[in-house]
Amino acid sequence: METAEFLDRYKKKIIELGAGAGDMLYVASDITGLLYLAKTECGVRVKQRDDFLNAFIDMLQEVVGTEGTLLFPVFSWDWCRGNGFDYRSTPGEVGALNNWILKNRQDFTRTKHPIYSFMVWGKNAHRLAAMSNQDAWSDAGPFTYLRDNNGKQLFFDIEAHQGITFGHYVEQCVDVPYRHPKYFFGEYTDKYGVTEKRCYSMYVRDLEVILEISITNDWLVSLGVAKHDQVDGIDLTVCNLAQAFPFIAKDMRENNGANTLKFENYELDWNKGKTLAYEVKGIE
Description:
The protein is of the alpha/beta class. It has helices at residues 3-16, 32-42, 49-64, 78-81, 96-104, 125-129, 142-148, 160-163, 166-174, 217-222, 241-254; strands at 24-29, 69-73, 85-86, 109-110, 118-122, 152-156, 179-189, 195-205, 211-213, 226-231, 234-240, 261-263, 279-281. The chain has one domain.
């Protein structure tokens, strides 16, 4: 099978699930299964993998069109570890495809935050890349922009809880008591190679509290804010994040996170107040 024919099935399905021209689409993925199918069905070998990945990204660009926008996460916690950040080269820790885009797709640009940056392309790419939000999930950053502009997320062969960082954004919006602002100081190298001391913050979890986001694709589908299907055994789910926001927030506020949070050693209690007020790291 030719690569174009192979990928066209995915394009049609993604559009059928609700992503389309003019959309702002945040892509979270595990492409292990896709690459295996590309090898077995299209004969794509290691030397041809770059060509295949280019075709895959081109296909997603075709889904949203020139009036749309794509976002791929290149999140890195090196900044939190005190290792600094280089806008040009610090790799992400959330997927091989995203780092491949960082290295190989010059038509994408990177947003600025050293912890939660995205590779972005399309109509709103320059607006996103121009954001100078100091706080990772603040109202001045990409997550609020997704919420306010009907942003959607494609979960490509993953469960929502594996890639819905938007859930942490909602935690900040409702001000959960087990998270608090933490301020990190470090050496930031910008796109021009200029290095300076900067401070960025993140609404971090109290490390004494063990939990994870537990949102599933099925739950999002049951709410009517997402659609799911498969192509060649690859799971595809498209979720409208703006529509999902009130459901996630309500579950956290009024249902103790029954569908959104999984605690191991903590019980969500809104009456007890913050477990910690704030933290500062790396100041000299």
